[in-house]
Design brief:
Strand order of the largest sheet: 6-5-9-3-2-12-15-14
Shape: globular
Number of domains: 5
Radius of gyration: 28 Å
Bound molecules: phenylalanine, zinc ion
Number of helices: 26
Strand content: 15-25%
Largest sheet: 8 strands, mixed
Structural class: alpha+beta
CATH class of the largest domain: Mainly Beta
């Protein structure tokens, strides 16, 4: 059966809901196979007198329905696949419905489902309609109370949003608990958890002296591994008070870790539910990247309490209102916890690899889209990461103080409301007196702006001229673009490192800046888009000498790093195209010198030693040949290792005697070590296998152990098999660590490897982390394997997608986005990718997946 692409929802169609839901009382009688949900909705008409009451509902079995105590005959309502409509309802009334649902059969992980034998929920974006009949849209905000009943022995802990109330025993070994949330909220922030957990507890005293009970709920035996998440939570609470003046607003804050989860985590009011990958960590089982991710995701979800929960989105087109802003907040939190320049570089690597790719392909959409087919597919790098960049530009334009004033006004004016991007900008226009009309094109125009730069220097007049030209590429549905307002930090730097710095607001198609330098001046270095002020692609034709000078003289750490990246990119491209057989010695020397020169800041040195990967090179040259790019990258890595061999020996030879600490300082040292381990693995050196195996065996933390294992996974031979077998035997009962075991193989192997991994007894289509550790690690991080010109990579992923999509549409659709770059591929891979997409289009896909496939082919 062929799947039709879903009907699109339009921003311009927005109309307010004609009723207010003043109070929601939910009663859950929890049983895995048949849970009874009773909802008492206190409703009041706010719109037209003849407006029907429309409620969303999906996969619900209606048991009873009554208005003000009187059961309704079937003729009084219309029941469909997607909801319930009541034509003639009073102006104020109470509607009571009872429905039955089956959590144990819910593999889509949206609504109420079971994970690890416990109940949990996921309601964003439209999961609440799978729990009860309700206006499942974010602009309907209400007060919720919840009463749950469940078997006491199996589910001793019963949690929901807000404040805990009455508890007690009922018949048949069951018990109940009541929760009351005093804050009005949209249904997508509803949550419930029931089960047996180990609990890691602590307290936080807020700036006004309120003591908050904090708890992280995890699998039995995992409590100690929740310490870092708790520590991150307390630091987040403090940071939001200090940085934004925001205090927590309930007496309790609960986090629950679940094994089966579609995304990273969810900001339900007072009850955040997390993918366990972003809660559990200790030295032996988690890498520094895991610790970092936990810190930032805990912060992200916590920060949503104000940016998302207290003030929410009017409709899902406004998703960036909460997500872009909250990512911006968590990135700054991480920068304050660690190193600001290192954080900035990591954020930009991610943006370039994922968001720039999205912006350049068939799935491109603006930060605030005007239409969507399936809402789950709107949780994109563009909405999140580019959305965060836009807030960063806003702050840069306003300055820190005015930005904060605007945020204060936003919190003050819109607390308790569901609002739009326009409402948000009105606050900044008011405090600054500026007009952000042109700036807001960042929300409506898709595509990454390209800024080309031409420079000239007149030695007689000592005049520097810099001409900037901008162009926003065409994207689906948007062919003609207007010039954007692009803020760019710039500087002129002389060869002693002295400089003049300013910010240019580049708002026309073209701009020329000229500077007259004093007598005796030499040609200065022009530093542009410092700190990556704007999310643009800078096109600059600099000669090699200037590029090398930039590495030496740049005073902005981002641009210094990027100068090294630019050289490495050019070199990899030249090697991949065969215009050059071997890496240029002087260039490799320069990169090596930059690495060793930064060794007093090992985290930064590690970033310099990390060459741009195929994801970042993909857009540089069309058509792209991932296989050739990967081979060229390895060649350059090998050459770099050759230059750094002694340095690597000494760095890797030192073994730390300090007790393990996940903080920035030690993590930086380990980052350098792992970067060098990566180079060693790519070096092709005879002794690489043995060295890696001994590093693997000697490693006392997961960061280095995994780096060695990843290196080994990419080699052939006995050392590889020994290490993989050893790792599997040691960690077979820890699913998160086993995800890493699957991931390193998928990240380095070919289609045959994937086939083997998918046939492994521990491969589980119902667990998104596991599916991603194989399919996404391959299709999104191992582009040379996935885009194999014979199509083998596509076929093996296609197979997994078809199965995964049946179980979990959100997961299937997410994996499909790996195909988004197919049009930019070299002809062989391109033809295979297209054939695969056509087969998928003809298959019976979920609505979510059909949406991606039709847009990808579109
Ligand atoms: N709102 C979540 C976040 O950004 C993401 C999410 C979306 C989680 C949809 C689950 C489902 O933190
Ligand atoms: Zn979020």
């Amino acid at each position: 059966m062929r799947t039709e692409a879903p009907v699109a929802v339009q921003l311009s169609d927005y109309t307010a809901y004609p009723f207010e839901i003043e109070q929601v009382d939910l009663r859950f009688d929890l049983h895995p196979d048949a849970t009874l949900v009773r909802a008492d909705l206190k409703i009041r008409r706010t719109g037209a007198a003849d407006a029907a009451l429309e409620l969303d509902g999906e996969a619900l079995e209606l048991k009873s329905i009554a208005i003000d105590g009187a059961p309704l005959p079937e003729s009084a309502y219309e029941l469909t696949e997607s909801g319930l409509t009541l034509q003639d309802v009073p102006n104020a009334f109470t509607l009571v419905t009872e429905v039955e649902i089956a959590p144990s059969k819910n593999t889509a992980l949206s609504g109420l489902y079971m994970s690890g034998g416990r109940f949990c929920t996921q309601c964003e974006a439209i999961g609440f309609r799978r729990i009860t009949f309700y206006p499942d849209r974010p602009d309907v905000m209400s007060r919720f109370t919840v009463r749950m009943t469940a078997d006491k022995e199996t589910y001793p802990i019963l949690l929901s949003n807000g404040t805990p109330g009455e508890t007690g025993d009922v018949d048949d070994g069951r018990h109940f608990a009541v929760w009351d949330d005093p804050h009005k909220k949209p249904a997508y922030l509803f949550a419930l958890c029931a089960g047996d957990y180990d609990v890691y507890r602590d307290q936080f005293t807020t700036m006004s002296g309120k003591v908050i009970d904090l708890a992280v709920h995890v699998d039995k035996g995992d409590a100690d591994r929740a310490a870092w998440a708790m520590d991150s939570l307390k630091r987040s609470m403090k940071w939001d008070e200090e940085t934004y003046g925001r205090e927590y607003d309930l007496g309790v804050f609960n986090i629950v870790a679940v094994r089966d989860f579609n995304f990273g985590a969810m900001e339900n009011k007072g009850l955040n539910i997390f993918n366990s990958a972003y809660v559990l960590a200790d030295e032996a089982s988690a890498t520094d990247a895991d610790f970092e991710a936990i810190e930032s995701i805990v912060a992200h979800e916590y920060f949503h309490n104000w940016t998302g929960n207290r003030i929410t989105c009017r409709d899902w087109f406004q998703l960036c209102l909460k997500e872009g802003l909250t990512v911006f907040r968590d990135q700054n939190f991480s920068a304050d916890m660690r190193s600001r320049p290192v954080q900035r570089i990591k954020d930009v690597i991610r943006l370039r690899a994922r968001q720039f790719a999205e912006d350049a392909g068939p799935l491109a959409h603006s930060v605030r889209p005007e239409t969507y087919g399936a809402i789950d597919n709107l949780y994109t790098a563009t909405v999140y990461e580019k959305g965060a960049e836009v807030i960063g530009m806003l702050r840069r334009i306003l300055g820190e103080e005015t930005y904060r004033k605007g945020m204060d006004l936003y919190f003050d004016r819109h607390d308790g409301q569901a609002v739009t991007i326009e409402d948000f900008y009105a606050c900044f226009e008011e405090v600054s007196g500026d007009d952000f009309t042109q700036f807001r094109l960042w929300y409506s125009q898709a595509g990454t702006p390209e800024v080309s730069v031409e420079e000239s220097w007149n030695p007689e007049t000592r005049e520097v001229a810099v001409t900037l030209k901008q162009r926003v590429p065409a994207t689906p549905g948007q062919t003609n673009k207007k010039p954007m307002l692009i803020p760019m930090e710039m500087a002129l730097i002389d060869d002693e490192g002295n400089m003049a710095e300013w910010i240019t607001l580049f708002e026309d198609e073209e701009l020329t800046l000229t500077f007259d330098l004093p007598e005796g001046s030499e040609r200065p270095l022009v530093s542009i888009n410092r700190d990556f002020t704007a999310p643009i692609r800078l096109k600059r034709n600099l000669d090699r000498e200037t590029q090398l000078a930039m590495i030496r003289l740049e005073t902005d750490p981002f641009n210094q790093w990027d100068a090294v990246q630019a050289l490495a990119k050019q070199e990899i491209l030249a090697l991949s195209e065969g215009s050059q057989a071997e890496p240029d010695d002087a260039l490799v020397d320069a990169i090596a010198a930059a690495v060793t020169g930064a060794s007093d800041d090992p985290a930064f040195a590690a970033l310099l030693a990390r060459l741009p990967d195929v994801n970042e090179l993909f857009l540089e040259r069309q058509p792209a040949d991932p296989v050739a790019l990967d081979a060229a990258r390895k060649k350059l890595q090998a050459a770099l290792y050759g230059k750094l061999r002694q340095f690597a020996d000494s760095v890797l030879g030192e073994s730390s005697t300090q007790a393990y600490d996940p903080g920035a300082e030690q993590a930086g040292e380990r980052a350098l070590r792992t970067a060098l381990i990566g180079l060693l693995a790519a070096s092709g050196a005879d002794e690489a296998g043995d060295r890696l195996l001994s590093l693997y065996k000697a490693a006392t933390n997961m960061t280095e152990k995994l780096a060695a294992l990843r290196g080994l996974a990419g080699l052939d031979g006995e050392a590889r098999e020994t290490a993989l077998a050893d790792f599997e035997a040691e960690w077979t009962s820890n699913p998160l660590v086993m995800d890493k075991w699957f991931g390193v193989q998928a990240g380095t192997g070919d289609a045959a490897t994937i086939e083997k991994l998918a046939a492994h007894s521990a491969f589980d289509l119902r667990n998104p982390n596991r599916v991603r550790s194989v399919a996404a690690a391959f299709a999104m991080q191992n582009l040379a394997g996935f885009h194999a010109p014979d199509g083998s990579g596509y076929r093996v992923v296609e197979d997994i997608i078809l199965k995964a999509d049946k179980v979990n549409p959100a997961l299937g659709a997410r994996l499909l986005t790996a195909f988004e770059q197919w049009r930019s591929l070299e002809p062989k891979a391109k033809a295979e990718a297209e054939a695969c997409l056509r087969r998928l289009q003809a298959a019976d896909l979920s609505k979510n997946s059909a949406d991606i496939v039709s847009r990808a082919l579109g």
